[in-house]
Amino acid sequence: MTKEIANQFFEGERPLFGLHDANIKNTTFGQGESPLKESQNINIESTIFKWKYPLWYSKHITMKDSVFETVAHAGVWYTHDLLFENCAIQAGKNFRRCSDITLRHVHMSSAKETLWTCDNVVLDHVQASGQYFGMNSSNLKINNLNLIGNYAFDGAKNIEVHDSMLVTKDAFWNCENVTIYNSTINGEYFGWNSKNITLINCTVESDQGFCYMDNIKLKNCNLLRTDLAFEYCSNIDASINSDIMSVKNSISGTIKAKSIGKIILEKDKIDPSKTTIITEDKSI
Fold first, then answer.
1. pLDDT of 156-208, one tens digit each?
2. What is the extent of the structural domain holding 137?
């Protein structure tokens, strides 16, 4: 039988520890840690969480039209099968070591160190602000993410991004298998030490972006104010519609661009013959 909990106020540590098969609506969880620890099969609606660690070691959770206030940090850890819709999350360090997560129309105003080491994640119309978002997570499908915060997705793998705006330096470092479509990325040092990275119909502004990478593809992209690009990159397949300020010491592949302000190919560091550079007025 499903329990109905509505128009309630709870405080103190673990007030509903181990709750299962329940609907919670129009309820506030005040001061007190871990109010729903070890819970299962819970539907939460129009509810406010004011304190730390709301959902740890939980399973099969649906949350709609609800709020995590600032002190409700480290809110969802070690929890699996989650759907958050139309929620506002003011606290950081959220979603750690979780799996099967869908966040839809969620605003995370303090998303520092959030979404770490998670697996099977869907982000749909999410706004987030904070450093180190998405670190070491895997199997992410992202649509309309608006993110502000440096070091995004460090160490993550198997990522597909659509129609997003990312303002983040050192984004997608140490990553593997990333495809980004129709998105804008602004920030220095994009993608270092990553492999199997594809950008399609994207605009990128990145000082010293695209370095120390393997198997990097750019199709129908613009690189704005991007210099010293592709340093020590191998297996490049780049088709750029814009000018590039400078390219330096690419290891192998093909770079096509409208123009390149400066090309630096140092024979004592790389073999220039392994890279083909094509611009509107000349080829190298």
1. 999 999 999 999 999 999 999 999 999 999 999 999 999 999 999 999 999 99
2. 3-278
Alpha helices, H only, 136-280: none
Residue 167: C-alpha distances to residues 7, 127, 151, 206 (Å)? 40, 12, 10, 10
- Whole-angstrom Cα Rg for the chain: 22
In this structure, is residue 173 part of a structural domain?
yes
Q: Give the pairing type, strands 165-167 and 40-45.
A: unpaired
pTM beyond cutoff 0.90: yes
Number of structural domains (the chain) is: 1
- Confidence at residue 1, expressed as pLDDT on a 0 to 100 scale: 85
Q: Is residue 65 part of a domain?
A: yes
Q: Is the pLDDT of residue 284 over 60?
A: no
The CB density around residue 104, as the number of other CB atoms within 10 Å, is 16
CA–CA dist 150, 127 (Å, integer) = 14
Flag whether 284 is in a domain.
no
Cα separation, 158 vs 179, in Å, equals 8
Average pLDDT along the chain: 96
